[in-house]
Amino acid sequence: MSFDVFNPVRIHFGNNATLTAGKIAKKYSNLAMIITGKTSMQKSGTLDRLVKILKDAGVNSIIYDKITPNPTIDEIDEAAGIAREKGAGLIIGLGGGSPLDSAKAIAVAAKGNIPVWDYLKTPAATALPVITIVSTSGTGSEVNRYSVMTNPKTKEKPGFGYECMYPKEAIIDPEIMTSMPPYVTAATGFDVFVHVLEAFTGKMRNAFSSAYCMQAFYLLKDNLIKAYNEPNNPEARGNMALASALAGLAIDLSGVGIIHALEHPVSGNYPNVAHGAGLAALTVESMKYNLEACKRDFMLIAHHLGVKRAGKSDDEYAYSLIEKIQEMLRAINLNIRLKDLGVEKDRLPRMAKEAFATMGFAAKNNPKDVDEKAALRLLELSY
Ligand SMILES: [Fe+2]
């Protein structure tokens, strides 16, 4: 057994933690660039509130609010150009996974002079400091170094992450998550589950990531469906926010697996597909594929999710996790197939190839070896 454990992100967790954003930002710069999406943070009033909190602390803001659900390299390069030109000394990501991922990529691109796509091959050593303020409980991006971006020309959607891309500080304020619509709660909440499933069972697992995962499974058990059914339940929101952060730390240490490797080509080719919805369509068949390699782990996860053993054999108990996940997907209205998401069947072979081209590191981390032929079969079974 050998592994490294490192995560330098300072986490501020709690209701109204956003109020501390001014004091935190001031440590880094007097001019912050806020990266966010086009609607939800404006509609909920969170963006205006943040600008005022920063202003009150003596920090001016530049707003870039054009980030789309599957952020493109064009958006990232444009924002990085503005940050450079205006001399922003701090990047604040505000919103869900897309603005947070983009904030990290923009922080790298603003420091350099090459298009962000080139950083897939050219390691980055420096970036502007980043603060994340997360509004959904799913991505985990608030506490890790990863960024996912889409190339609209090639439809590729790779993930990348260097040590300089860790946010300096993460603000996790469950209060601002109550504005999440049910579909977003379901999709991002299921993303949390897949993060911990893949980090817990992957080849790069270690004792630290497993500890994060176990606590996250325990929190998911009572809170995912509750947060979906009771959007204003503060306890459920708080616990899902916590589960998301734990899952984000777990994947930072131990990576993801074939479900994420297959999902990126789905939402890369179909940018209107939410990441969590793509995962939902792929999870059951991928779990069946991994079952033999993960029997003991699946039994342990089933136990953490409250599945009763009741005389089941090891095989039956391990399989009961898959049934539990199907039940969970039905309860949050995500019991879907790839065809329900508008995926065209003739694109599956191309997507199987892309899973290895852009997410090869995730496919490699899968508990059971998987090649392009097996990946295509999983896509077909999930169709
Ligand atoms: Fe994910």
Give your account of this protein's structure:
The chain is an alpha/beta fold. The chain folds into two domains: 10-177, Rossmann fold; 182-381, Dehydroquinate synthase-like - alpha domain (Dehydroquinate synthase-like, alpha domain), CATH 1.20.1090. Helices cover 52% and strands 10% of the residues. It has 14 helices and eight strands. It has helices spanning 21-26, 40-43, 46-56, 73-86, 97-111, 182-201, 207-229, 234-254, 258-269, 275-290, 295-304, 314-331, 348-365, 372-381, and strands at residues 10-13, 31-37, 60-67, 90-95, 130-134, 147-148, 159-160, 169-172. It has a six-stranded parallel beta sheet, sandwiched between helices. Helix 6 runs antiparallel to helix 7 (207-229). It is globular and about 65 Å long. The site of fe (ii) ion has 4 residues, from helix 6.
* C-alpha end-to-end distance: 38 Å
The total tally of domains equals: 2
For the secondary structure, the number of strands is: 8
CATH class label of the largest domain: Mainly Alpha
